[in-house]
Every structure is written in C-alpha cells, then in structure tokens.
Q: What sequence folds into this?
C-alpha cells in the first residue's frame, strides 16, 4: 500500500505541536529517536524531518506529499503548493518595528530607510503595494538587534507577545501579515494519496475541534431554561433532562473555548448551578 509522506519541522517551535497533533490523530511514530524518515505503524504515513524553510520546496517537488509549516514561511518561499488545512497553533504576526523614541505617522516613514528582515519577499511585496522605496537588508537571525547596532533603521520580523521588541527598545508600528501553522499539500497527488490525506484531515479536524471545545453540564431552574439554552446552543441543541428535584433540569452541551468565560458569566447570572466543564477527547464533526 502507498504511504503519504508528511514533512514536519525537525526541531523548533512547530516540532512538538506537529508530532502531538499526529499522535492525537492516531499516527504513532515507531522509530522514536528522530531519523530523517520515520514510519508510522498505525497509519499509512511516513514522516520526514526537515528545517521549516525547506518544507515548501519539498512539497512543491513532491518529495513530501504534505507538510506542516508556518504560513509566514510558506508565503515567503512562494512555492507551488496548496494550503489544505489551517491548524490554529503557533500563531504569530509579521510586523514592522522601529526604535521607540522615533515618531511614526505611517508607512511613508520607511521611504529611503533601511529595514532588516528574514522575510524579504513578503516585505518587498508589502512595500511595493504601499509605493514605498526602502532598502531591504536580509539577515537570517537576531533581526531585532539590527537598529541598535546601526545596521538598519527598522525591522520586519515575527512578533508574538512583543516582549522581544520591548527588550530591544523597539515598538511595533504596522502588522503586515498574520500567521498560524498550516498543512500544505502537493498539487499532483494521486487518488490513493488523496484518500489517505482525506482520512488524515478528517482525524486532524476532530482533534482540533475537541481541543477547541469543552463539554459542559449544569443544573438550571426550569423558569430560566430558555435563557440558559440561548447562550449554549451545543452541536445540534443542548440535551435537557429533568432532575429528581422538581423545578430543576440538567443541561448538557458543547462550548467553544473562545466563548468560555463570557458564557459562564451569563449562565451564573441566569441562576445555573453545579456547572461542570469537561475536556473532550475527540469530537467527530
Ligand atoms: P528551523 O531551524 O527549522 O529553520 P526556525 O528557527 O526558522 O527553525 P522557529 O523559530 O522554530 O523557526 O519557528 C518556526 C515557526 O513558528 C515560524 O516560522 C513561525 O510560523 C512560528 N513562530 C515563530 N516564532 C513564534 C512565536 N514567538 N510565537 C509563535 N509562533 C512563532
Ligand atoms: Zn527556519
């Protein structure tokens, strides 16, 4: 039987999360210590460990069928491949930043200036769109120190919390791109590989849905049931069962992580009691 070959980052910010996602999706990797190529005993997949920068090229060439990579790297490399799933982890943004004491009124600030970055392609495209001429100075790491040592007037780099910028006396002035981890796929996969991919994507979606959702149980006074149900719609609609204590019902539903605190506040307001929130192992959607 054919195998689907997936490229993931060998070591770095995406590695553990990529391996965990595969594991949760039932793809266990037999040879634990990381060889270049690992086989899965449980699913027709083999895993190729690479530097993240190389993943788009391998997928374009079909040496790997799919890959997990940051959208930022995929955009920078400009290789022929398709985003087949967004994974929601390793979220970050690519931003322009300048020394904090400088005055910034708009992207024209960069006219005639020097910008250090590891993402020259994305930056150049952005500056062209804005009609700004700036000198792009490509460096491969420690971009944030460039202004301090006189190498550049500003930088264009990955930001997540912003603490690296602050500790280098910089301030973020423009967000150019938002990024998250994505699965990219080769454009010429044959039917057999596409079927394996569809199966894998189905599993991945179930894992993502389960981590983004919680199971919630609560006791509701019957006269407030409608209010309570209106804030927790559930997958179809909530399950409502009478409690032995008349006048009360037990309500079960599914709640997305992002709405969690807001919804809990409302439920308490409406008189819900005994609220239990339970993680979901897998969620089939
Ligand atoms: P490699 O050795 O494979 O070339 P790298 O050093 O280029 O690795 P990492 O620092 O491991 O890359 O980052 C991998 C990806 O993780 C980035 O391309 C980006 O999508 C995401 N990322 C980077 N920094 C952050 C951050 N601070 N927060 C969240 N995600 C990030
Ligand atoms: Zn890299």
A:
């Amino acid at each position: 039987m054919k195998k689907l070959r997936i490229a993931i980052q060998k070591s770095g910010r995406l590695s553990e999360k990529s391996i965990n996602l595969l594991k949760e999706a039932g793809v266990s990797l037999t040879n634990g210590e990381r060889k270049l190529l690992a086989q899965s005993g449980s699913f027709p997949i083999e895993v190729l460990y690479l530097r993240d920068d190389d993943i788009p090229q391998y997928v374009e060439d079909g040496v790997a069928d799919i890959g997990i990579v940051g959208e930022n790297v995929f955009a920078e490399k400009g290789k022929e491949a398709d985003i087949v799933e967004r994974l929601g982890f390793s979220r970050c943004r690519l931003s322009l930043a300048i020394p904090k004491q400088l005055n910034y009124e708009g992207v024209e600030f960069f006219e005639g200036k020097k910008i250090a970055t590891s993402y020259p392609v994305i930056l150049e495209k952005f500056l062209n769109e804005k009609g700004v001429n700036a000198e792009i100075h490509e460096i491969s790491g420690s971009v944030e120190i460039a202004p301090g040592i006189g190498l550049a007037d500003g930088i264009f780099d990955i930001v997540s919390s912003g603490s690296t910028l602050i500790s280098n006396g910089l301030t973020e002035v423009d967000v150019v791109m938002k990024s998250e981890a994505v699965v990219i796929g080769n454009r010429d996969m044959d039917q057999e590989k596409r079927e394996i991919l569809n199966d894998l994507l189905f599993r991945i979606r179930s894992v993502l849905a389960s981590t983004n959702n919680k199971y919630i149980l609560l006791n509701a006074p019957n006269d407030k049931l409608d209010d309570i149900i209106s804030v927790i719609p559930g997958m179809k609609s909530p399950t409502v069962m009478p409690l032995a204590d008349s006048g009360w019902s037990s309500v079960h539903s599914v709640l997305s992580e992002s709405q969690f605190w807001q919804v809990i506040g409302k439920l308490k307001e409406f008189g819900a009691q005994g609220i239990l929130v339970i993680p979901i192992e897998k969620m089939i959607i």
